[in-house]
Structure formats: C-alpha cells, structure tokens
Design a protein that fits this description.
258 residues; Fructose-1,6-Bisphosphatase, Chain A, domain 1; D-Maltodextrin-Binding Protein, domain 2; 2 domains; binds D-MYO-inositol-1-phosphate; binds calcium ion
Length: 258
C-alpha cells in the first residue's frame, strides 16, 4: 500500500508545485485561515485516486465535510499543510497523508514537493527521508534543545489562546537553545524525526495536521504525548508535545511552569 500511496502523492505534488509558482486567489475560512483552489485540487485528486485504490478505508480530508465519517480504517489527508507558506512562497509546505487501521497508526507520508523531500514510514519498519533512514537527535540537555512551535489560527480571535501562546514561549525560550516557527505542523514533526529539532509543541491542531507526522516521528524513535504525558489522541487533545524522547518531560515541565 505504501508504494502506491507514494506514487499518487508524488503526482499530487505536481499540482502543489504548479500552484506554488503561480498567482493565487486566496479565500479565508476564518480570520487567519487561508484556502486556495490548489488545496481543493490536491485534495480532490488524492480522494479520487485513494477511493479507487483503497476501498476499505474512509477518507478524512481537511477541505471536505467529515461529519458522517467514522475514524476507524481511515486515510487522513491534509492536501496542503502550510497554506500560508504556500501562498507566500515560503518553501515549507507539504502534502500529509496518515493511514490508520482500526484507529491505530499504520503508514505516514509527508511530501514537500518544493524541496523534493519525501518522509515516509510504515509501523515497525523505521522512518525514511528520500529513502535514507532517519532518527531523532540524541541531545539530552534542554538548554541545548532547538524547539519548534506553531501559532493557532484562534490567536486572532481568542485572547485566552493568544495569552497561552505567549506564556508558553515566555516559559520555554530562556530555557532552551532557541524556538522556531516553520509553519507546517506535518513538517515540524518530521524535523523532530530527523533530528533537526529536539522538540515541538502546538495547540489546537486538527487530525490531518499531524496524522502522518506522528507515525514518522514514532518510527524514528521519538515520543508524542499530550500536555499530561498521556498518549496523544487524534481528534481529542488540545496540545501535542513531540520530542526525541530525551527532553520530553523537561519540555512539558517548562511549558506548564507557573
Ligand atoms: C496549519 C499549519 C501550521 C499550524 C496551523 C495549522 P494549514 O495547517 O500546520 O503550521 O501552525 O495551526 O492549521 O492550515 O496550513 O493546513
Ligand atoms: Ca494543516
Ligand atoms: Ca491544509
């Protein structure tokens, strides 16, 4: 199944790449939440191909109505993760596809067609970037850890979320090496998986933002949890905390510090 998925996702990458270099009309789903005709075109392409090839799976996808779709055997699709980057030609943007069997991780694929980076993993088989095995970093010292985060779209309208973002940065920034905000949750998880970042946290993400990256990170030896060190639950948890495993509890204790 993984090889078929990769072939289809690479084809969809051509739609993303064409859009990236052309002039785009932008629509707003919410104050900060953008969508273009390319998000819809990539999604429609993937859904059509996946429904022909993988009849036993439900398709859950960002730009679709997912109301009556059960999370069981599912392929969870973000057609363009990092749409703000895509619109502004910042090259950190990717197609994210996570496959779950009976709600359990099975295959994760994140493809950035601009930088031609394909991250992929099947549970039990390790994680790979363009065919080369990747592993999380071995850094244990939190002061040397490069941490990534993201800012929720709700920060434009919800003051509580905005204050929470600021509070957490205030807690973590002095204690770590530095903080990055790359603009694609799927790629952030892959960057922890390949050892670029030691850790990553963000609030209010949707299942399609992280469904694939979680699988890739776990297979690269990393750890993923909620803010209470419990397993992160797609569709449920507010916060995702991801790391190389070695700085995980330091990251959480710094985030929740009063
Ligand atoms: C967004 C990106 C971003 C994160 C946002 C997500 P989108 O996804 O992953 O990094 O900070 O919260 O919603 O809207 O570009 O698919
Ligand atoms: Ca996304
Ligand atoms: Ca998206």
């Amino acid at each position: 199944m993984k090889e078929k998925l990769i072939k289809i996702i690479k084809e969809a990458g051509e739609i993303l790449r064409d859009g990236y270099f052309s002039k785009k009309d932008v629509n707003f789903k919410a104050k900060k939440d953008l969508v273009t005709k390319y998000d819809v075109a990539v999604e429609n392409f993937l859904k059509e191909k996946f429904s022909q090839e993988f009849k036993d799976f439900n398709l859950i996808a960002e730009e679709s109505d997912n109301n009556n779709i059960e999370f069981g055997n599912s392929i969870i699709i973000d057609p363009i993760d990092g749409t703000t980057n895509f619109v502004n030609q910042v090259p950190h943007t990717a197609i994210s596809v996570g496959v779950y069997k009976d709600k359990k991780p099975f295959i994760g694929i994140v493809y950035n067609p601009i930088l031609d980076e394909l991250y992929e993993s099947e549970v039990g088989c390790g994680a790979f970037l363009n065919g080369e095995k990747i592993e999380v970093s071995k850094e244990k010292v939190f002061q040397k850890a490069l941490i990534s985060t993201g800012f929720p779209y709700s920060s434009g309208t919800n003051n509580e979320d905005l204050l929470d973002v600021i509070e957490k940065i205030k807690n973590v920034l002095p204690k770590c090496q530095d903080i990055r905000r790359l603009g694609s949750a799927a790629l952030d998880l892959c960057y922890v998986a390949k050892g670029t970042y030691e850790g990553y946290y963000e609030m209010n993400l949707k299942a399609w933002d992280v469904s694939a990256g979680i699988i890739i990170l776990l297979e690269a030896g990393g750890q993923v949890s909620n803010l209470y060190l419990q397993d992160y639950k797609l569709f449920e948890d507010k916060y995702i905390i991801a790391s190389n495993g070695l700085i995980h509890s330091h990251l959480i204790s710094n985030l929740v510090m009063k």
